[in-house]
UniProtKB/TrEMBL annotation:
Keywords, sorted A to Z: Endosome
Protein name: Vacuolar-sorting protein SNF7
InterPro entries: Snf7_fam
Any one GO CC term of the record: ESCRT III complex
The family this protein is said to belong to: Belongs to the SNF7 family.
Pfam families assigned: Snf7
Subcellular location per the Swiss-Prot or TrEMBL entry: Endosome
GO biological process assignments: late endosome to vacuole transport via multivesicular body sorting pathway; vesicle budding from membrane
Chief place of localization: other
Gene3D superfamilies registered for this protein in UniProt: ESAT-6-like
UniProt keyword Ligase, yes or no: no
Length: 227
C-alpha cells in the first residue's frame, strides 16, 4: 500500500517540478502587468504636475515650484518602476530559455532511449556475423540444389550423341543449299565433313561438276559455230 501511495506521491512531485517554470513565469508576468499599470499611472501624474507647473510658472511661482517638486518625486518612482520592469522581463526571458533547454534535453534523452531500445544488442559485429551466416546458408542451399540436379539421370549428356546430332544438322543444311542453288557450296563445312559424308555426297558433287563441264563445252561449241 505504501508503494502505491509512494507512486502517487512521486507522480505529483514530478508534475509539480514540471509545472514549476510555468508557474514562475505566470507569477512574473502578473507582477510585470502590475508594474506596467503603475508606469502608466505615474506617467499620467507626471504629465499633470508638469502641466500645473507650466500653468503657474508666471503667475504663482510657489505653486509652480511645488508642482515641480511633486513631479521630481514621481519621476524617481517612475525610474524605480522601470528598473523593476526591466528586471522582471529579463527573469521571464531567462526562465523561458532555461525551460526550453530543459524540454529540448528531455526530448533528446527520450530519443536516445528509443534508439537504444531499437538497437538492443545490435552491433556492427553482430551484423557482420549475421551476414556471414546468411552467406554460408545460401552457399549450402546452392550446393544442395546442384547435388540434387546431378542425381537426375536424365541430365547425363552423351558427347557422342551430341556429335552425331551436329553432323546430322550440318548434312541437312548442306542438302538444303544444294536444292536451292543446284551446286555444292564450297565452304568450311564441306571441308570439315567426316568420313561418313564422303560416300554418296562425294558422288553427287562429282556429277554436278561433270554437268557443269558439259554445259561449258556446249556453250563453247555454240560460240565457235557462230563465228
Amino acid at each position: 500500500m505504501s508503494g502505491v501511495w509512494g507512486w502517487f506521491g512521486g507522480g505529483a512531485a514530478a508534475q509539480k517540478r514540471k509545472d514549476s517554470p510555468k508557474n514562475a513565469i505566470l507569477g512574473l508576468r502578473s507582477q510585470l502587468d502590475m508594474l506596467q499599470k503603475r508606469e502608466r499611472h505615474l506617467q499620467s501624474q507626471i504629465d499633470a504636475e508638469d502641466a500645473t507647473a507650466r500653468k503657474h510658472v508666471s503667475t504663482n511661482k510657489n505653486l509652480a515650484k511645488a508642482a515641480l517638486q511633486r513631479k521630481k518625486g514621481l519621476e524617481r518612482s517612475m525610474d524605480q518602476t522601470l528598473g523593476q520592469i526591466g528586471t522582471l522581463e529579463q527573469q521571464i526571458n531567462a526562465i523561458e530559455s532555461a525551460n526550453i533547454n530543459r524540454e529540448t534535453l528531455a526530448a533528446m534523452e527520450k530519443a536516445a532511449q528509443a534508439m537504444k531500445q531499437i538497437h538492443g544488442k545490435l552491433t556492427p559485429q553482430n551484423v557482420d556475423q549475421t551476414m556471414q551466416i546468411l552467406q554460408e546458408q545460401n552457399d549450402i542451399s546452392e550446393d544442395i540444389a546442384n547435388a540434387m540436379l546431378n542425381m537426375n539421370p536424365n541430365n547425363t549428356i552423351d558427347e557422342g550423341e551430341l556429335e552425331d546430332e551436329m553432323e546430322r544438322l550440318m548434312q541437312e543444311e548442306l542438302d538444303q543449299k544444294m536444292l536451292e542453288t543446284g551446286t555444292v557450296p564450297v565452304s568450311d563445312e564441306v571441308q570439315r565433313m567426316p568420313a561418313v559424308a564422303n560416300g554418296p555426297l562425294k558422288g553427287k558433287a562429282v556429277a554436278v561438276e561433270e554437268d557443269d563441264e558439259e554445259a561449258e563445252l556446249r556453250k563453247l561449241q555454240a560460240e565457235m559455230a557462230i563465228s
